[in-house]
Design brief:
The complex is a heterodimer of chains A (82) and B (263). With 82 residues, chain A is an alpha+beta fold. Chain A has helices at residues 18-22, 56-60, 76-81; strands spanning 4-8, 28-30, 43-45, 66-71. Classes of the chains: A alpha+beta (82), B alpha/beta (263).
Chain lengths: 82, 263
């Protein structure tokens, strides 16, 4: 079960690759042989299960391509008593 | 975008800011103008002031900023954004007024406007984007171009003997008594982007509290006119620009410090 999830608005992407360079789990790449409406190679996720929802891609993206979801943290106390 | 089912145990941690329109920007791939636009939008969303904010767009690459921000915007003549902001803020003190200016706009043709607006202690906020070059007109030397930097109008590199030295706007403006909060930040990596967002937020909070003029200088890139790819441009800026333009606050009055620590 993935800890996070990113949604990619492909048509906003300009293929600059900044997100690819910051993703700590290396699951982003620019599409190979596929283009978006602007004519760029859009970013895509190679392994959605590995996503941690850290939102570093969204933090560096100049074109607001990403929407990021992350698993709710369980309350610490509950985890400690369990 | 296809509809995707979001698992029930997931929460939204990043969404498109309300303070940006849906428009696609004309900026080159990897241009940090997009990042800075986004940070301003996120801050205005967080402060809940979008509907009473007026932005002032400059002349330069960000001349079309009014298409991208989802709020009232005015377009100033080249370099005159601080004069326009002065008027808007004085007649509508309840509005949040900010100027968005590049180095050609603020540090060249608009130097007089920014210096005097700060010196009068005008209560608006300036976001100053410094990328050490004139982007829109084709990569000519700007007042902020580094010594030895090759541009289309300094093909042998900027010679300080004839072209002078890069101008340090944050230090210059920070000296003036009218300034409450002046800082220089950089959007060249994720931690830097987070710090820049905090600085932009504090700048707007300074304005909301009526403490004086606030400015955030943001070191930015221009991959196209530096003739580099987006990543290479970030590295070049980290290596060369940060050395010449040191990061940090150049002015923080005690009241702004109290505001920052109180939050």
């Amino acid at each position: 079960m993935a800890k996070g999830m990113v949604l990619i608005n492909e048509d906003r992407c300009k293929g600059c690759g900044l997100c690819v360079s910051v993703c700590p789990v290396h699951i982003l790449r620019l599409a190979d042989g596929r283009f978006n409406a602007k004519g760029y190679r859009p970013v895509e996720v190679t392994d959605p299960e590995a996503c941690t929802g850290c939102a570093m891609c969204a933090t560096i993206c100049p074109d607001v391509v990403f929407t990021v979801y992350r698993q709710r943290r369980k309350p610490k106390q509950a985890a400690a008593t369990a | 975008m296809a509809t995707v089912e979001i698992p029930a145990d997931m929460e939204l941690v990043y969404k498109y800011p309300e303070s940006l329109t849906e428009a696609h920007t004309h900026y080159c791939p990897g241009c940090t103008h997009g990042v800075i636009h986004r940070l301003i939008a996120e801050v205005l969303d967080e402060l809940g002031v979008r509907e009473r904010t007026i932005g002032i767009a400059p002349v330069g690459c960000s001349v079309l900023a009014y298409y991208y921000f989802n709020m009232d915007f005015a377009e100033a003549a080249h370099g005159r954004a601080p004069a326009m902001a002065t008027g808007l803020k004085r007649v509508s003190p309840d509005k949040v007024v900010f100027t968005y200016q590049g180095d050609g706009d603020l540090a060249a043709i608009g130097t007089a406007e920014i210096i005097h607006a700060v010196n009068r202690g005008e209560l608006f906020t300036t976001i100053f984007v410094n990328n050490a070059i004139y982007g829109m007109t084709g990569g000519q030397m700007a007042p902020t171009t580094l010594p030895g930097q090759v541009t289309t109008s300094s093909p042998y590199g900027r010679d300080v003997e004839t072209a002078g030295f890069p101008i340090h706007m944050a230090e210059l403006v920070g000296q003036l008594p009218g300034a409450a909060y002046v800082t220089r930040q950089a959007v060249l990596d994720v931690p830097g982007i987070r710090r820049t967002k905090k600085a932009i937020k504090l700048a707007f909070q300074t304005q909301l509290a009526g403490l004086g003029f606030s400015m955030v200088e943001v070191l930015s890139t221009c991959g196209t006119n530096w003739h580099m790819g987006p990543l290479e441009a970030l590295e070049w800026a980290k290596e060369h620009m940060v050395e010449y333009f040191p990061l940090g606050d150049t002015k923080m009055t005690d009241r702004v410090r109290a505001l920052k620590e109180g939050k």
